[in-house]
Every structure is written in C-alpha cells, then in structure tokens.
Amino acid sequence: MSGPAPAAHSGDVPRPWAGLDGVVRVLAPEPSGPGFTAFLDRTLTHQGEPFAAERIDTLQAMSAAFLADPLLRADAASVAAAYWMRRAQVARLREEFQRRSSDASVVRVPVGRVLHIAPSNVDTLFIYSWALSFLCGNANVVRVSQEMGPVVEAMFGALRGLAEAHPVLGAGNRFVTYAHDADATAAISQWCSHRVIWGGNETVAALRPLSLNPHASERVFGSKFSYSAFAAAPYLAADPAEGARLASGFFNDLFWFDQMACSSPHVLFWVGGEREVAAAIEAFEASLQAEVDRRGFVPSVSSAVHRRAFAFELAAGADVQVALEHPGFIGVRVRDAAGLARETCGGGLIRHSRLDRLDDLVAFAGEGDQTLTHYGFTSEALSAFAALAGARGLDRVVPVGEALAFDVVWDGYDLLDDFTRQVRVKPA
Amino acid sequence: MKSPARELLDLPPYGRTQVEKRADLTQRIEALTRFHYEACAPYRNVVDRVFGGLGRVDFRRIEDMPFLPVSLFKDLELKSVPDAEVIKVLTSSGTTGQQVSRIHVDAETAQVQSAVLIKVAQHFLGKERLPMVILDHAGVVKDRRSYSARGAGILGMAQFGYRPFYALRDDMSLDLAGLRDYLGTMKGRRILLFGFTGMVWQHFVQALEASSLRLDLSDSILIHSGGWKKLEALAVSQEDFRERLRAVAGIPRVVNFYGMVEQVGGVYFENELHFLQAPIYSEVIVRDPVTLAPRPDGQPGLVQVVSCLPTSYPGHSLLTEDLGVIHGADLPGTAMKGRSFEILGRVPKAELRGCSDTFQTRAA
C-alpha cells in the first residue's frame, strides 16, 4: 500500500523516499510487515507520549528477552544494555525527565521522528540511542551497518519476538540496513525531525552535508579520544582487593569493544614522582595481567599482530619503552610528547605517561577528547580539573570501570533534550 | 658492509644439515644486527626501546635476537645506506589505496640477491638456460623504473630462461595459438614455465579447461609463487592445483616458492615432499602469535623469516603476518637439508569492534 499522505502535512511535504522499498531492508521489529515507505508516510503524523506505560513495558520485555538469549547473556555489553532497560532503571530516567518538566510553563513533547545512524561496530550503542528516543515518544528509524555481528543479529531476533505482544514497536519503529547509499540517507533525512549520527569523523563528514527538512535538528558525534589518570601513591597504598577491583574495572573499560569505543582509554597518566610511578606501573601491569588470566581472555591473533606493529612503530619514532611480556596487552612507557599523539591503536595497547600534578593534564586536554577515567583523586581536585579540562574540550570525568556506562548526557549533550521539544505555555 | 651471504655463494644451497647451518647463520645474523643497529636510527630505536638494547640481547640463538614486524616497512623509511647508494626501491604489491612497503636496495644487496636466486634456481633447473614461458602479459614489465612486486618477480626469474614468451595478452586472455607456435619451435627441449599462482590457475588452467584443448608439456617445470588466498576461496588444494596442471598440459613438476619483497634473497622453494625449504642463507621460525614464544615443530604459529643477505636495509629478521608450521629439518624423502615448513594462510586483518566509521570514505 502506498498510503495517502496524512492531512496535516500533505500539502507541503515532498516524499523523496518513494523509491526506497527496494533499497532499504527492514530487520525489525516486523521484517515482513508493510513497506518501509508506507511506514515513513504513516509516521509523518506519529504521536507518542513521553514515558508512556506501554513504552516502559516494552523496554522491560526487551530487557528480559535479551537476558533470556544465550548469546546476549554471554556478552557483557549486551547484559549491561539489558539492565539499562529494566523498569527500575527506566523509572530513574523518568524521574529525571519529570524534574526537567516540573516548570509549569514548559511542556515537553516528543521531537517527533528520529533517524539514528548507528556506528558500525559498537554493537550495543544503537539500542541506547533508540531506547531513549522511544521512551521520549518518538517514531524511529535506526540504520545499522550491513556487516552486523552475531550480537546485533541476536538483538533483532529478540525484538522480532516482541513485535506481536507490543504493537507500539511496529507502530513507530524500524530497524533497517542498506548499502552505503547517500541517496537513501538523504531521503530519510527529509522524513525525520531529528537526526543523530553516532560517528566517527568520516561518517559525520560524509553525512552532515545531506540536508534535513527545514524544521529538523541534528546531533553528530565525531571520533573521540579518551584516557585515564591514576594517582600513584594511593594506588600503591591500596589493599589487594581494591587493586583487583580496579584491574577488573579497567579490563572492562579497555576490552569491551577491543579498545575501540570512543570512551576506551588509550593513555594512562600517572600522577606522582619518578620512582613511585615506575613502581605503580609495574604493579598495575601485573595486576591487569592477573585479571586477564583470571578471565581466561586471549586476544585475537589479529589484535596481537596489529598492536605489536603499532608499538614497534611508536618505538622507532618516539622516546618510549615497550613491554612485550604480558600476553593480554602491550604496555608502552612514554617519555616524550611524540609518544602521546591521539592515534588509536585498539586491541589492548596502553601508553603510560607520568605527570607531577593532575593539573598538568589540563594542557593535554583538547577538542575531541571524551572520557577521563580516574582513580585516587579528591572530588575537589576532580571538579577543579573538570572545569579547566572541560573548557578545553573534555566531556566526561568518571571512575575507572565506568568508561563505557551509557549516560543520557553524552559527549556533553543531553539526549533527553535532543529527543524532545519544549513547548512554552503562558496563561493569560 | 659486504653481505654475509656472499661467503656462502660457492656452497650448494641445501647442502648443510640444520645443526651446521644454524651455527654458521647465527653469527651472520648477529653481525647484521650489529651493523644495522649502527647504520639505521629507527632500527636502533626499536632495538633499544623494545628489546632493551644490544647489551640485553642473547646472541647465542637467532630466536632471541631482535626482529621487526614486516608492516613497519609500510609506514617507515628503513635503510642502512646513504641515499646516494640506493639503486632501486622495491615496492610490495597492494590493492589500490593500501599502503605499500618500500624496500631500499643498494648494489651489494642487489648483486648478492641475484646470486642467491641463481644458486637456488639452478638447484631445480640446472645450469643451462631453458626456453621460458611466462604465464602473464608483457605489460607487467614494461615500465622498468617502477617495478611492481609482480614485475620484479618476473624479471628475476627471466634470467633463467631464454626467448621468453608471454602467454597472456594484455586483456589476460590466453594466447593459445601463439603458445603452440612457440612450443613447436622449441620441440625436444625442456621448458621453464613461470607465473603467479592465482593467474596460473585462472588464466592458464581454467582457460585450457574451458577450451577443451590440451598441451603437451611433458618435459617441463612450472615454478609459481604468490598467495594461495584466491585458490583457497575456490577450495582448490595444492594437490588439485598440481593435478589439474598435469591434466591440461601434462606438466610433470610444479614447484611453489614463498618469499616477500620485504626480504630480498629470502626465497623458499618447495622440496620433493611439497614443503617449503629454507636454504643455507635463510631460516624460518614459528612463534606463538600472542606470546611470541618459539613454537616446536608441528605446532602452527606466526612465521618469522631470517636472511643473512640484506645489508642496505634492516630486513634480515622479519615477523610476517603469515601463519605457518615447521615440519622438521633434514627430512628423509628429500635431499634438501635444513628446515621444512608450510604456509597455512594469512592472519586476518584486524577487525576491531569500536566507534569506527559507519560508512567507508567514498567520493561524494
């Protein structure tokens, strides 16, 4: 069915997506449902209510479906996503949303129709982006990469299983894929009232020029660089249990996405004197390797080859010391600024650098920096640092182990704001 | 520096037992390591910063001496002679957009490389030059200033033949009539055929099979090289490859060889058991891909190639991105002494999960 354009918009809305049915493949929630173009037509008048009960119920059901899937249950990042969609966690989000809506002169409404361009390989990120927008009451089109991993396949499988019992999914949401086709993205960009591009730089550069409908807004997330700071003395003084907890948290930060997420740390800054820091690095690497052994983690051959080549190349050009003795990762002690270039290697390569004071890190911070994970600093020191480094571009300061935790404030922008509009109401 | 391989040129290339060969080669690799350490700053940096400096290196075993990942030649200019002495720069083959290795060769390295190749090839071909059929098109070697790995390989082999005949047209179609005429004029003589594995398969074996015509090359030897990837994708085994060559052209002897532009002189020809064989100038080591611990015979791992030849650039010990397995040394069933090994494939390109780009870069 080609669906007549709805009355409210029919006069002035062009339909550049008319030819997309053969191009766009719908993966979920109903792969065999009505045509994609009919969906776009129909949802031009989509109306949803933020945090409606049926939406919260749907996420709760998704959470349960994820945890019931053997493959997803074994994937730590998917389990985290499932927990994030649970009723109790969503209730906290709703409270946050209601706090923002407490001003009687503001009514928050859905932004309308959201196009999400998911990153190709952070398998779980698209779920957060979609779930938040879905909770805010929007219609959604989520474009994922054609090269889906088994995790993403399993998530779509779970979604398809819920479509019948939760009609709100099929009514306003399509998870799709299509070939690298600027025309398809351009057409759907005319449909949406908000577009969010989850990076990185090349994707943003390629897609941002595609024009949006005149009333639409946009959020883009470029490639980011993240690092970590440890105070050496408190680290050395920590008891073994604390050291093991840190190693476990750092392991997650490092390896959940093969150290290729925007928030994965690449440089570990140690604050302290020469000797202290040397001892702390040694203890830290031993502790991280022990965690690697405990989890029985073996890096892929590709990762091992790739990160080794990166380390050798670093050694050829910068004053560094490369330690190849740990099978889980490569540690590189960096002694000059040439070794601190914002290149990302991934796959388990950590560069260590020493600082006298945390404030010395301010000068390093720059635009495109995202997360600092930290250990051993006072909250006053961190707040002072955040003000200075944040002004230079850093987005986020969180404890070790929380680098990849999803937050409604992402890269400094509030997604609850992005996915809603504020209607001012002034009684006479 | 004179290439340490020079002193080996009068010896038969497969004449030393593994024990004899190791004792000799270990000293030559030490000498090259020390030379390149002095002559090439980035190499010195790597030795100092990854291997702890020459003082920390145990020179009693080649396994304990420094090596470079082969990919380093893609990003860095590594050479141990002044620019004025570089007579050619070899580049690896790579698909468009891929970075290629750049290998700086001086007169000494080029001469000894050529001499080593002659010694090894003569082991298979004898001292007399043979009429030669090149299973490629002549265009590959036209521009002599920029040798591709493919062109350089053909020119390197061409010195063992005479009246080279390029059996493929520029459009890669098999010039069957021309080939028959050529073979007619060479009747009664042993023929040398050379080509790259994938092309031999696609443009010779398959072309002949499609035409249902057969050739009589019952007195010939085919030498081929190049990745096995294409054939593996088609599920063609090495045995199939030899068998089908015999069926379409009666070729009785097919010899594969392994080597890479990054290590000139490191040539590994197949022995009678169809394993690759390390001659007296070279060695092969297999390591655990993650821990780098040397692997015993029979256990697969990452292949390291060692050659006492290159003096113009630090390519004497390279960790490749190929997976392989050593089958032993001085094996019964072959007169060729030294280590026998097999290449199992290439390490897949790192495909890391992460915030990588949704779309590949493409022209708008």
UniProtKB/TrEMBL annotation, chain A:
GO molecular function: acyl-CoA dehydrogenase activity; long-chain-fatty-acyl-CoA reductase activity
Entry keywords, A to Z: Luminescence, NADP, Oxidoreductase
Organism: Eiseniibacteriota bacterium
InterPro entries named in the record: Ald_DH/histidinol_DH (IPR016161), Ald_DH_N (IPR016162), CoA_reduct_LuxC (IPR008670)
Top enzyme class: oxidoreductase
Biological role stated in the UniProt entry: LuxC is the fatty acid reductase enzyme responsible for synthesis of the aldehyde substrate for the luminescent reaction catalyzed by luciferase.
Keyword field contains Ribonucleoprotein: no
UniProt similarity note: Belongs to the LuxC family.
Catalytic activity field: a long-chain fatty aldehyde + NADP(+) + CoA = a long-chain fatty acyl-CoA + NADPH + H(+)
Transmembrane segments: none
Coiled-coil intervals: none
Pathway as given in its UniProt record: Lipid metabolism; fatty acid reduction for biolumincescence
GO biological process, one term: bioluminescence
Name of the featured protein: long-chain-fatty-acyl-CoA reductase
EC id: 1.2.1.50
Pfam family, one: LuxC
UniProtKB/TrEMBL annotation, chain B:
GO biological process: bioluminescence
All residue ranges annotated as the Acyl-protein synthetase LuxE domain in the record: 30-360
Signal peptide: none
Gene Ontology molecular function: long-chain fatty acid--protein ligase activity
InterPro entries in alphabetical order: ANL_N_sf (IPR042099), LuxE (IPR007534)
Coiled coil: none
SUPFAM superfamilies: Acetyl-CoA synthetase-like
Gene3D superfamilies cross-referenced by the UniProt entry: N-terminal domain of ligase-like
Protein name stated in the entry: Acyl-protein synthetase
Species of the source: Eiseniibacteriota bacterium
Phylogenetic placement of the source organism: Bacteria, Candidatus Eiseniibacteriota
